Amino acid sequence: MGNSEELKKGNSKEKTDVKRISNENKNDSEVKILAFLCNWCSYVGADTAGTIRLKQPENIRIIRVPCSGRVNPLFILKAFSLGADGVLVSGCHPNDCHYSEGNFYARRRLEVLKEFLPFIGIDKGRFTYQWVSAAEAKKWQQLIINFVKRIREITNK
Amino acid sequence: MKFEDRLKEKIKNIIDDLKLVVGYTSNKLPLRVKPIFIENKDEIENIIFNNLCINNLATYAYSLSQEVDGKIGIILKPCDVKSIIQLLSEELISRERIKIIAVGCSGVIDYKKIQKEIKGSKIISATVEHENIEINTLNKRFNLKLMDFYADKCYWCDIYDNPPVYDEYIESDVKLSVKSKSKYEDINNIEKLSLEETFLFWEKEFNHCIRCYACRNICPLEVCKDRCITQLDEPYWQSQRITLKECKFFQLIRVFHLAGRCVECGECERACPMNIPLLKLMKKVNKEIERLFDYKPGLNIESKPPLLTFEKIEERIKEEELI
User: Fold this and answer.
1) Structural domain includes residue A38
2) Which pLDDT belongs to residue B208?
3) In chain A, which residues touch B (CB < 8 A)?
4) Are residues B142 and B186 in the same domain?
5) Residue contact B199–A121, C-beta within 8 A
6) Which residue range forms the structural domain that includes residue A85?
7) What is the pLDDT of residues A34-93, one digit of tens each?
8) In a domain, A57, yes or no
9) Is there a contact between A67 and A98 (Cβ–Cβ < 8 Å)?
10) Cβ contact, residue pair A101, B310, below 8 Å
């Protein structure tokens, strides 16, 4: 493969979902929040919230992951680096993980990340991890309403 | 017998069982030493050990154990032993393949601190004797106190005569005598800054980064060198451009690769040609990990790194309620 072709390949790859999300509506002053939801609980919970027509803010862009344990802390840092205003990770409640222990690992990693963020100048409040089960559509609604409110406050500070 | 002679004697006795011994030897450059790889008995005479031996030879442990068949002996300061322990606890090297030749340490000199003191002038010759360092530059002579030029890690070292694990231990004639300093002082200073000031502080530092990867390549625990995600095409994490954003993100990759593993040997900071205070990031993560999981890396082969394990009920993690 030629050099230029390689370059092109690299560039096209760069247009990952995160990048696309952070670029759309560039002039929009609304905050953009990225959510990593686990396939088995939180994604279904968010889906249920939609199905039963609970009103929710539109600022959330969802990426479905197999398990909250799949979420590398670097996903979150990358999202911030590409311009996300807030990042939310949500998975099954502890002890309810589809893979038994994924969310236990996630809890440790994400807590360390959360404590680390202020050290590089990112507000701790911009990131959160929460447990939402498939049945907790109401909780999901309340959660993102509160989270979006918090991110707005931080962004407009 | 003098310390260095005892060290050579010991190596002479054990070299027959070993394929290779890694140690320090003198360097033509003043105030510098370099590593030496010894296979034969007659090369042992070249081995030295003194206050200039700041390099962490544990850096070679992983790559040599991949390339060389047989047992490898490595001369290690007690703080360097921590790197080996961490590698062992993650089963990256096997205990049978490594012979830990620990040497008592009386502190090591940080070359960068001296360079700063003499304002970067070229050192023609230098001698270290007792408590003093004498340096001749092109047009000036400096007399420096050894006390002020130890590497940062020496100021809070508590294992200089007590390596946590070893096969052979050669005690030093001189004890480390420094006024101990608070380990987290610099971290606390940054924590006091506002978010914006912190952001600008790192922005300023990473503006210098040239992405030479020296920090990664010298790290004894970053064994991923040839499959580092920063250089991979698939998955595509980063471009190869040298922009502030990319340099900063590269460092964050390192931070989270080393979270709960870094033994704070300070090699990344020493190797950095742009003098970026990289160790601060590592220290912050380690500080949080110690607070949350009561774990210090590099002290126990049996203990598991905290991010590779979990508790069903985490006593110290306070999850935030958003509802």
Assistant:
1) yes
2) 94
3) 9-10, 13-14, 16, 72-74, 77-78, 81, 94-95, 101, 104-105, 107-109, 111-113, 115-116, 118-123, 128-130, 139, 142-143, 146-147, 150
4) no
5) yes
6) 32-155
7) 999 999 999 999 999 999 999 999 999 999 999 999 999 999 999 999 999 999 999 999
8) yes
9) yes
10) yes
- B55 and B99 assigned to the same domain: yes
Which has the closest alpha carbon to B261: B290, B227, B292, B241? B290
Reported ipTM: 0.91
- How is residue B97 annotated by DSSP? G
Overall domain count for chain A:
1
Q: Mutate one of B199, B310, B311, B321 to test the A interface: name it (highest A CB count within 10 A).
A: B310
> In a 3-state reduction of DSSP, which class is residue B134?
strand
Cβ atoms within 10 A of the Cβ of A40, count?
20
CB neighbour list of residue A37: distance below 8 Å, 6 or more residues apart: A43, A45, A46, A62, A63, A64, A65, A90, A91
Q: Which residues of B touch A112 (CB under 8 A)?
A: 259-260, 285, 288-289, 292, 307
List Cβ neighbours of B309 (8 Å cut-off, separation of 6 or more): none
Query: B233 pLDDT exceeds 70?
Result: yes
Stated pTM of the model = 0.90
Q: What is the CATH number of the domain that holds A128?
A: 3.40.50
Question: Quick one: tokens of B157?
Answer: 């070292």
